[in-house]
From TrEMBL:
Protein's organism: Xenopus laevis
UniProt name for this protein: Matrix metalloproteinase-9TH
Region forming the signal peptide: 1-19
UniProt keyword terms in alphabetical order: Signal
Length: 55
């Protein structure tokens, strides 16, 4: 019975610790390889994605 209580306590603490929001105030940006377009504006990048994926 004691092992079960320890398991439940550890499970709750792990779930609580991993659900905390990040402290960063900047938005997260994900860039995939081959998709770096530094010389394009946001509108140009959006249009490029629409053409690339056929929308």
């Amino acid at each position: 019975m004691g092992g079960l209580c320890v398991f439940v306590l550890v499970s709750i603490l792990c779930a609580w610790g991993h659900s905390a929001p990040t402290a960063s105030k900047t938005p997260v940006s994900i860039t995939f390889p081959g998709e770096i377009r530094k010389n394009m504006t946001s509108v140009e990048v959006a249009e490029w994605y629409l053409v690339k994926f056929g929308y």
